[in-house]
Amino acid sequence: MEDIIIIGGGIIGSLIAYNCSKYHCNVLLLEKENDIANKSTMANSAIIHAGYDPDDYSLKAEMNIRGARKYPSLCRELKVDFKQIGSLVVAVNEDEVHTLERLHKQAEKRGIRTQMINRDEILVLEENISDDVIKALYCKQTGIVTPWKVAIAAMETAMSNQCKCELNQEVKAITVEKDGFIVKTQDHTYHAKIVINCAGIYADKINEMVTHKKDFKILPRKGEYYVLSKNASNFVKHVIYPAPTKKGKGVLVTPTIHGNILLGPTASEQIDREDNSTSERGLTFVREKVEKIVKNVPYDEIIHSFSGLRASCADNDFIIGESSVKNFINVAAIDSPGLASAPAIAEMVVNDYVLKRLNLSKRMFFAHRVKNVVINECSTDEKERYIAHNPKYGRIICRCEQVSEGEIIDCIRRKCGARSVVAVKKRVRPGMGKCQGGFCEPLVVKILAKELGISPAEVDYNEKGSPILVCESKGVRHEKG
Question: Is 478 among the residues known to form the active site?
Answer without folding.
Answer: no
